[in-house]
Structures are given as C-alpha cells and as structure tokens.
Amino acid sequence: AIVPHTVTYEMTATGGVLMEFATTYALVYTVYATMVDRKPGSPSLLGPISIGFIVGANMLATGPFTGGSMNPARSFGAAVVSGKLKDGWVYWVGPICGGGAAGLVKGK
C-alpha cells in the first residue's frame, strides 16, 4: 500500500511547510558540505555517514508531524496514486524552498 504524506491535525499547513523547509535545508546543506564542496584530505566516508545521519534525524524529528518527506516527487506520486491531495502544496513549497535556500547559502 502506498501511504501519502499528510500534515497531522496538531499542526497547521504553515507549520508543515516550515518543518519541511528546515529538514530539506539541513539535508541539502549536508550534501553540499560533505560531498560537493569537500575539503582536500577529508575522509571519504564522512559524506555518506553524515547524510545518513541527517536523514535519520530529520525523519525522527518530523515523521510524526509531516511524515518527513524531504522529496516532493515521492510525496506527489503517493498523493496522486492514493487520491489524497489535501495539503499537497506543503510538500512542494517546503522542500523546494529549503533546498534552494541551502544551495544559495552554501553556493556562496
């Protein structure tokens, strides 16, 4: 069964956008810092371990509230297949803005 991400009743859609923004920002920043813009001589295993850690931490922190998406395509596909499109914009706006902001900050 494909289960779509939904914002829980304890949280507003705006709160969901902010959570998705923060988690995606943290993920993209970590990817840039450890894999894309690596310092010469840094351990090669640091990147994958850091990325796995941040994904796990993000899921534990936001899973009960928004499902911890961090991926608009996965959220949209599950919502379309299940027919539950309520609050779908949360999973587009938050991750896209969060990823873009991390790229702008780290890209400087």
UniProtKB/TrEMBL annotation:
Topology of this chain in the membrane: Multi-pass membrane protein
Protein origin, superkingdom: Eukaryota
Key word Membrane present: yes
InterPro entries reported in the protein's UniProt record: Aquaporin-like, Aquaporin_transptr, MIP
Gene3D superfamilies (UniProt xref): Glycerol uptake facilitator protein
Transmembrane parts of this sequence: 12-33, 45-68, 88-105
GO molecular function terms listed in the Swiss-Prot or TrEMBL record: water channel activity
A Pfam match: MIP
Cell location: Endomembrane system
BP GO annotations: one-carbon compound transport
Matching SUPFAM superfamilies: Aquaporin-like (SSF81338)
An annotated GO cellular component: cytoplasm
Homology family: Belongs to the MIP/aquaporin (TC 1.A.8) family.
Protein name from the UniProt record: Aquaporin
